[in-house]
TrEMBL record:
Protein name (record): Cytochrome c oxidase accessory protein CcoG
The entry's keywords: 4Fe-4S, Electron transport, Iron, Iron-sulfur, Membrane, Metal-binding, Transmembrane, Transmembrane helix, Transport
Organismal lineage: Bacteria, Pseudomonadati, Pseudomonadota, Gammaproteobacteria, Alteromonadales
UniProt source species: Shewanella ulleungensis
PANTHER family the record matches: FERREDOXIN-TYPE PROTEIN NAPH (PTHR30176)
The keyword Metal-binding belongs to this UniProt entry's keyword annotation: yes
Transmembrane segments: 51-68, 97-117, 169-187, 202-220, 342-363
Domain annotation 4Fe-4S ferredoxin-type: ranges: 264-292
Record keyword Oxidoreductase present: no
Amino acid sequence: MPKSSNYTASAAQPSTNISASQRIPVVQIATPSAKIHVREQKGIFQRLRQYSNTVLIAVFFLLPFINYQGRQAILFDVTEQQFFLFHITLWPQDFTVLAWFFMAAAFALFFVTVYWGRVWCGFLCPQTAWTFIYMWVEAKVEGNHHHRAALDRAPWSLSKLRKRVTKHVLWMVFALLTGCGFISYFMPARELYIDIFSASNGFWTGTWVYFFAICTYLNAGWMREMMCLHCCPYSRFQAVMFDANTKTVSYDAARGESRGPRKRSQETELGDCVDCNLCVDVCPTGIDIRNGLQYECINCGACVDACNQTMEKFGYAANLIRFTSENALKGQSQASVFSIKALGYASALLIMIGLIIIDLSQLSDIQLNVIRDRQSLYREVGIDTVENTYQLKIRNKTQQAAVYKIIVLSDKAPTFRIVTDTLVQIKPGEQLDYPVTVSARRSERVGDTSQQTLQFSVSQVYSAVNPIPVKPANQVAQQSRFFWP
């Protein structure tokens, strides 16, 4: 049988006895200068991958165009240091919520890995999605994998130049769209696309867009499987999460060996593997799954579809290569569904979700900072009145203008009064520096202390005409000191 253009030899031999601790370290020795021309494959897992990748890419590009209450629904405004997520506005001091979110996503990935291996890499990873898009463009312009390999070997001609230029131009256009798509989460999307494609963008806007466009072009167009083989950290430590019940793409060596070519109607004592090499031809990372599980495998299921196609032609049972576990290959019963690893990751995930809920429930729409006037501790007015001056920094953390009422409280006499206006209106996201003067009667002072604790409270109200609190959650308080003569 002729070898495929992406054939790689392995130093390991197929084995039916692969323990859980020995499943990953299979050494692949690939031809240094070989370029992988992936064969196009159809099947249930490829359709599932295409659907999931389509949804992923559509969500990536369309989310920034969703508006909410007159502004972009999802926007990380670096200039204003605000993160808008529909009705939620996160400020730098609220970014612990994002930290919990990313940690929850990591533990969710680990939890799925315990059961399904690197299924994330095969069906949802952006690197995989963009790589398959670039390979699809390449196939449409240059032809199937045989034609592409032949074009690589062919001398330069006008036809070859035309195909290569067309392919790279299309790659660059999609890379530029990707750069715009990413930066549109940090800048208003509608203005960004117009500015980039009309060449009227600012320097830094263009710099970041073209930086991510170049990264996309290099990663998906040139590096491709090298990102999975050498750059992706997940491929290096994901084996730690595997156990004997983890379902990964596996070759049933007991059924397939000894492999060898044969005619369709020929009776043979060989195993079911006909050594067609299709499982190698369709692999985006260029490995031979028959050599055992390897860290380079991204669990995309392409070899499963290719092998099932061959098994159907020869009249053999399907799933010689399939998603299965080590215990299932050995014919052993599966242990408890909830392993220690799975329970550990699930517990960590639930804790992270709980922290997200707690943080979100404690988010305040108001930020208050009270600063005393340190140049003058107090001011005597008349015979019986003492005044202290404060600077209130009040920030409206919502996306709408709001009216706030300022009050001052103390658990002891005297009665403190705010001399200045107690109602202020603040624009969305604005911080107001508001000077406040608090007065009290000397005759009402209790004891002989030189200072007393008081508390400033700021709450959102309906309007200046109707100063009723909107809801208890829209209130914040901070303590300070009142000094006496």
